[in-house]
Specification:
Elements (H helix, E strand, L loop, with lengths): L11 H14 L4 H20 L2 E11 L5 H9 L6 E8 L4 E11 H12 L4 E9 L5
Antiparallel strand pairs: 1-3, 1-4, 2-3
The protein binds nickel (II) ion (2 copies).
Length: 135
C-alpha cells in the first residue's frame, strides 16, 4: 500500500513519552507506534459512534449454577445476526470458557455482552472490538 509521509509537531514532553512507549512496548519505530495508536483511536471512535465492528466476547461461567447454560444459549439465539462463531472449552469440573466471534453494530455487540454478563453464574465477560476495514 502507498505510504505518505506527514510531519507531526510534538511538544518535548509528549515526544519523550512517545519514545518511552516505543521502547517499553518494543515498537519497531515511532511511526509504527503512531499508526497503532491512531488505529486504536479510530476503533474507539467507531465504537462510540455505534458503527460496524468485529470482535470477540469472552465469558467464563459456572455451568452448574441453575440454568446458566440454558440461559446463555437462549440469549445468544436473540443475536443470530451478530454471532459468527463460538468456541467452548471446559476449564474444570465446574467452569467453562466460551469465546464468541461477533460482527455488527457496536451497540448491539455491547448489548449482547451485557446480556451474557448478567446471567447468574457468569464470572467474567470481556469484549474486544476492532474494525474489519482497518488497513
Ligand atoms: Ni444454538
Ligand atoms: Ni463446558
Amino acid at each position: 500500500m502507498a505510504v505518505e509521509r506527514i510531519g507531526v509537531s510534538l511538544e518535548a514532553p509528549l515526544l519523550k513519552e512517545l519514545d518511552d512507549l516505543v521502547h517499553e512496548k518494543g515498537y519497531a519505530s515511532r511511526s509504527e507506534a503512531l499508526r497503532e495508536l491512531i488505529r486504536r483511536g479510530l476503533v474507539r471512535q467507531r465504537v462510540a459512534a455505534g458503527g460496524d465492528v468485529v470482535g470477540t466476547i469472552t465469558i467464563v461461567y459456572r455451568h452448574d449454577v441453575g440454568a446458566v447454560t440454558h440461559r446463555i444459549l437462549h440469549r445468544q439465539h436473540d443475536f443470530l445476526g451478530t454471532i459468527r462463531a463460538t468456541a467452548h472449552t471446559h476449564l474444570s469440573e465446574e467452569t467453562c470458557l466460551e469465546v464468541l466471534i461477533v460482527e455488527g453494530d457496536a451497540k448491539r455487540v455491547a448489548e449482547l455482552a451485557d446480556r451474557l454478563r448478567t446471567v447468574k453464574g457468569v464470572l467474567f465477560a470481556e469484549t474486544v472490538m476492532a474494525r474489519a476495514d482497518l488497513r
